[in-house]
Automatic annotation (TrEMBL):
Protein localization: Golgi apparatus, trans-Golgi network
Native organism: Dissostichus eleginoides (Patagonian toothfish)
GO molecular function: GTP binding; GTPase activity; metal ion binding
Protein name: ADP-ribosylation factor-related protein 1
Xref: Pfam families: Arf (PF00025)
Residues that coordinate or bind GTP: 24-31, 78, 134-137
Recorded family membership: Belongs to the small GTPase superfamily. Arf family.
Length: 201
């Protein structure tokens, strides 16, 4: 009877936990996106004033529950000298959200280089990639097709990974639900796939 009840309890309440990294250059809007995500997906979370967010030195952590999935986000600082810390988190991650500032055409190639370096790391093999074309509220910003064109030569390195480029405005929350729901769907589906190479060793 105990086994039956504890099995039922686990079935109803236990969550599958997934770690999702939020990466991208400084000023892309990663922390703003994390705050919006927490506000939208956590019932009792009183969101902070988005205009008070300052550059991240280190990392911010956030957790949300979506159905039976618990997503733990690690939002890492994007400044040049902090990017060398990103790969310390790769082995533990089940998904990556890569945020691009669509208003910053000058730094788009720099962003692409950081993205390419990140996806070349074998610890991220098979991990779903959500690319956010952020700041779509700003007139004349880069569109999703513009960004896809610049990033097109990354396609071979992305390979068979799930990848979605999603327009987003972290400041207002537009595109946040769509992106998170897509990520949840991908990481949950990956549980039922054979283990990634790094898990086998
Ligand atoms: N217009 C507009 N501004 C945004 C949006 N998202 C973020 N910002 C602004 O972009 C700036 C940087 O946002 P952050 O969230 O701190 O960026 P970050 O990627 O976390 O930066 P680091 O922590 O330095 O890596 C802030 O002034 C935000 O208000 C957006 O969707 N639209
Ligand atoms: Mg930040």
């Amino acid at each position: 009877m105990y086994t039956l009840l504890s099995g039922l309890y686990k079935y109803v309440f236990q969550k599958d936990e997934f770690c999702v990294l939020i990466l991208g250059l400084d000023n892309a809007g990663k922390t703003t996106f994390l705050e919006q995500t927490k506000t939208k997906f956590s019932k009792n979370y009183k969101g902070m004033n988005l205009s008070k967010i300052t550059t991240t030195v280190g990392l911010n952590i956030g957790t949300i529950d979506v159905g039976k999935a618990r997503l733990m986000f690690w939002d890492l600082g994007g400044q040049d000298e902090l990017q060398s810390l990103w790969d310390k988190y790769y082995a533990e991650s089940h998904g990556v959200i890569y945020v691009i500032d669509s208003t910053d055409e000058e730094r788009l190639s720099e962003s692409k280089e950081a993205f390419e370096k990140m996806i070349s790391n074998e610890a991220l093999e098979g991990v779903p990639l959500l690319v956010l074309a952020n700041k779509q509220d700003v007139p004349d910003c880069l569109s999703v097709p513009d960004i896809k064109t610049t990033f097109s030569d990354c396609a071979p390195k992305i390979g068979k990974r799930d990848c979605l480029v999603q327009p987003c405005t972290a400041l207002t929350g537009d595109g946040v639900n769509e992106g998170i729901e897509w990520m949840v769907k991908c990481v949950v589906r990956n549980i039922h796939r054979p283990p990634r190479q790094k898990d086998i060793t």
